[in-house]
Amino acid sequence: MAFITENKYNISMKTQQKAFIFINKGAFRPLIAGVMLFIAGICAAQETSQAVYLRRFQNGTQLYNSSRWNEAAAEFRRAQEISNNISDWSQALYWVILSELAFSDYGSAIRDMDELERTAPVSSFTRDMAYHRGRVYFNQGYFDDALLYFRRYIDSVQGDYPETADRIAAAYFWMGECLFSMMQYDDALRFYTWVIDKYPDSPKKDISTYRVDLIKQKKIEAELLALLQWSHEESLRTSEDYQRRIRSYEQALNNYQRRIAELSLGAGQAADIQQTDDYSMYQDNAFSQNSWQSLYDRLLERAKQLNKELDVLINEYINGGLK
Q1: What is the domain-level CATH number for residue 34?
Q2: Is 209 a member of any domain?
Q3: What pTM was computed for the model?
Q4: Where in the sequence is the domain holding 48, given as residue range(s)?
């Protein structure tokens, strides 16, 4: 693509005066007159081209403000194609990119950013591309890359102009958003706080304040969740301890009941033996009938006590809400 510079066809007043003097001398008067007419025609064509550029650019601006971004991109593109100088070309392409970003055509926007940076590397519009690239990468989920471009934009701008300050504040805010999306809440908090403290007039102040409150709430929720988890684990440990004690009591109770049954059977057998003539054979056995009965009574009493303790433990378990 070729550009026609602003001063290519401008003729100084001094040159024009010399031309008219030469013409008045006579010989080349018709030839010079033709050249002058040719130059005037070119100047008129250039003015007409500039008028068309301005009309296209204004149409694009109106469409952009009406949120008709696809149509706006087309008008800015036409203005770019008929531009007469690098400044108009850069301006038109910059607004093409903004329109593409508005309707989320990120692939086209990145390609046009590359072309703008390659063709007009020192343009003020090119400098802003770092910020817009950061936005594109953020929207695509490439948070690390977005952080780098926002940082690059901040490092490239100078001055305390309100527009510049607002864009810098926005860059800090989006860096916080990248970190927030990566769940690095403490780091994100520093960027939001920086926007609130250093740029109180920024449009990003209110949303930064909201994010700060949200991070604080998340921290409280995390602490409560940790406390609840600890309480639940402690409850499980207590429940397991109760259940283990209950199983132990039940096992002991079953053992006592089995021994009582065995002793009860043994006492009955001793009574039957006394009714026989051979009872004298069993006089040296370990237990007499009274001994069996005494042991049976003691075991029965212990079983009853154990059963009471088991009931108390079960009631304590239920009343404590350990389920």
Answers
A1: 1.20.58
A2: no
A3: 0.57
A4: 17-104
User: pLDDT class for 153, splitting at 50, 70, 90?
Assistant: very high
Return the amino acid letter for 313: L
Half-sphere exposure of 188 (CA within 13 A, CB side): 24
DSSP-assigned letters across all residues of 3-65 = ---TTTT---HHHHHHHHHHHHTSTTHHHHHHHHHHHHHHHHHHHHHHHHHHHHHHHHHHHHH
pLDDT surpasses 80 at 140: yes
Half-sphere exposure of 127 (CA within 13 A, CB side): 11
Spatial separation of the C-alpha atoms in residues 69 and 62, rounded to whole Å? 10
Domain count, the chain: 1
Give, as one character, the DSSP assignment of residue 287. Answer: -
The torsion angles phi and psi of 320, rounded to 5 degrees, stand at -80, 0
Tokens (6 digits) for 21: 């003097």
Q: Answer yes or no: is 54 within a domain.
A: yes
Span 84-115, pLDDT tens digits: 899 999 999 999 999 999 999 999 999 999 99
Q: How many whole angstroms separate alpha carbon 203 and alpha carbon 159?
A: 18
- 254 domain residue, yes or no: no
Is residue 160 domain-resident? no
* 185-211 per-position pLDDT tens digit: 999 999 999 999 999 999 999 999 999
- The answer to whether the beta carbons of residues 160 and 200 sit under 8 Å apart is no
Which candidate, 249, 226, 230, places its Cα nearest to that of 238? 230
